[in-house]
Amino acid sequence: MREAPLAVPQKIVIVTTELGVGGAERCVANLACRLNPEKYQVQVVALAAPPEPPRDGLVRQLREAGIELTFLNCRRSRQLFSAVSQLRSIVQETDPAIVWSFLFHANVVAKLATRGLALRRLQSLRVIEQGWWRRKLQAWAAAKADRVLCVSEGVKVFAEQTLKLPIQQLEIIPNGIDLSEIRPKAYWEPEKRAYRILAIGRLEPQKGFDWLIRCLGPLLKEKPEWELVILGDGSLRDELATQIRTEGLEKSVRLPGWSMDLEGWYFQSEIYALSSRWEGMPNTLLEAMAHGLPVIATNVEGVRELLPDQLAQQTITHENVSQATSLLRQLMEKPALRQELGEANRQQIQQHFSLDQMVARYEALLDAVLSIPQQHS
């Protein structure tokens, strides 16, 4: 009996705004490298130029995996039409089964570039977009997509209630992380360094670092053996540095900038702090939990899934500063509580947010979408 021929892998063009060091970009790289190559042939297109070393780790990861990678070298909004034209040419030449976009600018460009083409379209919503015009454009871009993939329940609610997208169009697939590459936290007392509260993110209003410094200031003055380290760069660096000086916290709060060695910072910290004002599903919180750190996290989108039930005692709000201060005090003063929560946090990620689980969910979604007849966008 003659064997049935092997199916030809389905072509997928993944479009992202850039390939720097963000959580959405990491998700793109992980999916491109880990989707079953017998089923899917993946090409990645980034609207921006290649990131400069040492921030090009994801680019190296993709190239080492043999993923076809194209940069459109668009650096400004006025180059939008160039990006649309270039992407349309790539799509027409490649003839993919699916065009799948990540992040706001990529979603808009992909929508424009695929108009009138018979293919399947996926859009990923990674964050709660701010500003009425961005929301209006995102709603337009996502209209008539075969699926809109939301990274958390909070993003799905935003898509349904604010963007007015039909619920049957929406799917939730949370982020995942590869625990095999992460050494768990060692809970011994630090030597030759201060006890450390770590925060990571762009120095922008979204991340709420101004609030975190205000909240932690009195405790850090009371406990000089502790420090707050905020890793990242952004437009608020000078403003945050001024706030630190004004509040007399120069010896307690540090802004080292961006670091390649996040693994080392997680390992050599006692508490992780997420102070964001809005999110989608915060990757740094997921990473901190995977490292076995106890956390203090504002109750933004995605946090409820990461910290359910008993773990929810680690959530706070910007409005209730006394609650946040109380939780921080407990974590700073009780090593046993830090270890108990840190171990529970790692177990939560291991059970529900592994990278293998994330990839499997996306593959199931792709298989379902590929069973849908093609339509003209």
UniProtKB/TrEMBL annotation:
One of the record's GO molecular function terms: glycosyltransferase activity
Stretches assigned to the Glycosyltransferase subfamily 4-like N-terminal domain: 21-180
CDD domains referenced in this protein's UniProt entry, alphabetically: GT4_GT28_WabH-like
Record flagged with keyword Nucleus: no
Positions of the Glycosyl transferase family domain: 192-347
UniProt entry keywords in alphabetical sequence: Glycosyltransferase, Transferase
Statement: the UniProt record of this protein carries the keyword Glycosyltransferase: yes
Protein name listed in UniProt: Glycosyltransferase
